[in-house]
Amino acid sequence: MKKGIKYTGILLFIIGILYFLYLFNWKGTIEKEIHYIPFTYVGPVLIYFDQKDGMQKERINGARLYRISSAGVLKTKFKANDGWIPNDSIIQLFYVDSLNNVVGRIPYSHLLTYDTIRTKNYIGATQQVYHSSTINNESIVYLKYMVDTLNTIFEKYPNFNSGGPGIGLKDLK
Fold first, then answer.
1. 106: closest CA among 12, 37, 20?
2. 3-class SS letters over 55-90
3. Helix, strand, or coil here: 125?
4. Residue 126 above 70 pLDDT?
């Protein structure tokens, strides 16, 4: 009888662990993203998801394409793209000119190291963070990140902490 209880307990424990792992990873890997940001834009970027009046879904080589306005805002029909980010190249940010020609890549803060930053005036983007709000009884999910120089981010946002893997902006002061 005690052996049966012991094996039942072990089986339930294993099922519990497997269920936890399933819940933890249920979203899987995010889709690739490409963000087009108007050349010389600096400031906060906000992407509002699942918007009825949002931009139509657009893709480049299978990756989601987000065309950020000159005000730093995009309303899109895409649903939020949350989940696991397996590598640094799955999300790419680019400066584009008025004809949408890529003129430069914008690195994330977690890609930056002391070797890639010569001064704090180097343009970079902070780690992306999802938020949600309720407006007029409607849930809104949005993504927010900053595109700016490190000096400006430190000056305007003294408590800023990028979090995430690798070196954070707080480490670069």
1. 37
2. ECCCEECCEEEEECCCCCEEEECCCCCCCECCCHHH
3. strand
4. no
CB 36 within 8 A of CB 64: no
Amino acid at 69: S
Q: CA-CA distances (angstroms) from residue 133 to 14, 48, 57, 130, 142?
A: 37, 11, 22, 10, 8
**% of the chain exceeding 90 in pLDDT:** 28
Q: How far apart are CA 77 and CA 59, in angstroms?
A: 12
- For tokens 């989601």, the residue is 64
Q: What is the pLDDT of residues 75-123, one digit of tens each?
A: 999 999 887 767 667 888 899 999 999 988 887 655 454 444 444 555 6
